[in-house]
Amino acid sequence: MSPETAILAALAVPLAGALLIGLTGRVNANLRETCTLLTAATLIYCVWQLLPLIFAGERPGVQLLDVLPGISIAFEVEPLGMLFAAMASGLWLINSIYSIGYMRGNREKNQTRFYVMFAVSLAAVMGIAFAGNLFTLFLFYEMLTLSTYPLVSHKGDAATVRSARTYLGILISASIGLLLPAIIWTYSVAGTGDFTVGGILRGHIEGPQIGLLLGLFVFGAAKAAVMPVHRWLPAAMVAPTPVSALLHAVAVVKAGVFTIVKIIVYVFGVDFLFAAPSSDWLFFAAAFTIIAASLVALKQQNLKRLLAYSTIAQLSYVVMASAILKPLAEVGAAMHMLAHSFGKITLFFAAGAIYTASKKTELGQLRGIGRRMPITMIAFTIGALSMIGVPPTAGFVSKWYILAGAFQADNYLALATIIISTALNAAYFLPIIYLAWFEKDNTPPGQEHGEAPFAVLLALAITAALTIGLFVYSAPVYELESQLVRGQP
Amino acid sequence: MTAPELHLPVLQVVVPMLIAPLIVLLRPQGLAWAATTAASLLSFAIAIQLTTGVLGGHTYQYALGGWEAPFGIALEVNSLSALLLLVLTGASTAALLAGKASLDRQIEAHRQPLFFSAWLLALAGLAGILVAADAFNIFVFMEISSLASYVLVAGGPDRRALPAVFKYLIMGTIGATFYLIGVGLIYMMTGTLSLADMEIRIHEVAEQRPILVAAGFITVGLALKAAVFPLHVWLPNAYTYAPHAVTVFLAACATKVSLFVLLKFDFVVFQHNLLGHDVQFAAFLMPLAVLAILVGSAVAMFESNVKRLFAYSSVAQIGYILLGASMVSYLGLSGGLLHIFNHALSKGTLFLAVMCLSMQYANLQLEHLAGAARRMPWTMAALVVGGLSLIGVPGTAGFVSKWYLLTAALEQGALGMFLIAVIVLGSLMAVVYIWRIIEAAWFTAPAEAPPGAQQMRTEAPTLMLVVTWLAALSNIWFGLVTHVPRELATTAAANLLRHLP
Fold first, then answer.
1. Which residue is closest to B335 within chain A, CA to CA?
2. Which end of chain B is more exposed for a tag (fewer CB within 10 A), N or C?
3. pTM > 0.90
4. What is the count of structural domains for chain A?
């Protein structure tokens, strides 16, 4: 398969899969699940064969069609997008295994619609990852918002619909009201929106306008949940847990931070932005979000909401890292995208496993649960340690690079932010671990339970292993992402 | 070019016009509808054929009965008329195909043959305006189409349509009379009715007062028929109380055909003859366009009847078309013309979706539509697609024309910044009024449903839904594959501006 075919196949496979899933869903549930798994596996095959090319420094691309003179639908694979696509496609397979266990274990309704929309969302994610210009990115960004709406409102009761409204309202209005004007602005001053190494805005825009444009981009990409456009993420927690796990810890939120990093690196250019004082605010906004979201997380009693606020904080790590505007910090941003994904998807898997096995959702109910569900809670512990950044987990590696970048820029405020937030992360995750392992079990009699279904356990064991694996062996990721900043002409 | 193809311009008018009287004879239930739809489909096919020819670089000239221009009736189809013919016949066909169930409900069986006959006359009249090459035939066809569309608007069961149509009739007649006065003055000074001859002969008498007066009368008269703000007052009620299928048909094309004549006169006949006419044209129409966008959108934001809401949105959208034209530049005019096509797509989709809604909801007030998306998820999804296109989200047709308008505004310097602000503000207001519908349909619990009960799914008839979705998908198609409308619009814009430096 030529690289061009592989790129287009990465978009077409999930869509074709969605069609197949929809058709087989009427016939037989097992057949439908087979389709999901096969589609996910095929997607991995398509996406991952691009990896060696990118390592070798190639940038395969396809131009699909010209919409307007100068505006086209085009794809180009570069290190950051490659990492995002490889991560999302790989985790989709694991998440599909988990979904099967979860959806059946909880006897959810409308399962066919669930799997169909999931596949469509993945197609949108691939489009975002491989987008070669701002216009293409925006198209798939909106497609992702719309295709995840039915997943968020899956349950369909009044409370869910209210939350889904917040979800859609914030994401759509931010993207149309802020992101779109920013894109149009960029096209009109630079004459192009193609992602170019070193940026396209140099010499076209200056002074406070740089900060304003950056603001439109950052808050327009509300999927990155930089405060104050973060409210949709806790609201989205009404979705079934596999959705929270893959979309609201990995695909959707990462699409937001991915967009921001990509715009900083390929539209503004790191050096250009570093020299522009009006862009400094981004660093402070991200740092504020990290601290504030961690403080809010401290007070949460619902496990999934706690994880949501933790996600908001962790996303801003990525934004802050990229806002440090130094090569190592950009690598750290990419690394943290991956590390947080492995850790957070494990945590969500564990939360879903607990819900499936026992219907428990609140922190207070988790006393002594480690003895009933040892595998789940071991995985949860690994994920939580990764969030705090304790070795031997992936979170340690990415924080290391971010800190190294902060030292490159002599940015001690970043250092302080990371130290404070690490303490806060520990303050809200360690009590849970303590409760689970060392408190006495308080499950009411008659509601005894064991582990979740096998498919669920398998999935969370794999992602927990990945979290440790990335600590042991992060060299390839570093090699790939250092091209991001090294490849400047 | 083969012999039958040469006759296409006249067939565009003759086919619906000759079938119209025959329709009256088709008494059995459903037959009149079938024949009308077939005639409309045939017209659509002719329009497509003409468009292919025009895209191939051909301009159709046709002399009726072999009588050459000064003596006989001349017809002409260029890229501008082809663009509008596509919109016109496409809208009519979609409205008829989708509208069978709705029309059966709204029009009593024994009046249907007459109603459909009027429909075809309106189609023939509007097509005639688009192909006619002289000022008087434009007037004749204008009258045919106007009279027929009064019948169409008043044809429904809603008695409130009668005062609405009376207003429409009075204002439409004033508009047509103004136009006729203007044409009469020009005829007095030049002795010709052919647009091509006027273009040349006006030059000699250009600065004389009757010509200036004529230009004023014609512009105002046509602006009235095109519902240019503040002459739009007939439009909202006429659209609201007309039968739903008629709204689909007329909203997509009726006012645009008058705009077509306006552009043809102002750009081809007056622009290069009257000194400073382009400046006057811009100074007169640009403020009106800006006001139309702002006021129309603002009223739509507070309107609670879905049809009235979209009618006011139409007033605003006509403003965009006019704004593009009033910039008197290649990009601006291209954007305006493109918006004719793209707005027809989006508004057509929206009114089709409203027609689907009307099959289940007799009352189209927003508060009655609470939870409509649960009963009719497909209909409401199509409405969302049409709404996105109306807002101008990338990936939909609406984006393409707004992009042209924005780039055109950028050329205008300081004034351009103001125009950009207007376009952006108008689009944001569109977000608000589309969101109000989405809010009601998707996020509000239906009032009468017992708590906890699962709502029944009761979608519109399949054919109606299929056509609505085809329209919705064409919004996306023409948002991505923009070649054909863009080619037509830019060629037409270049053609209209050919005399300006």
1. A68
2. C
3. no
4. 1
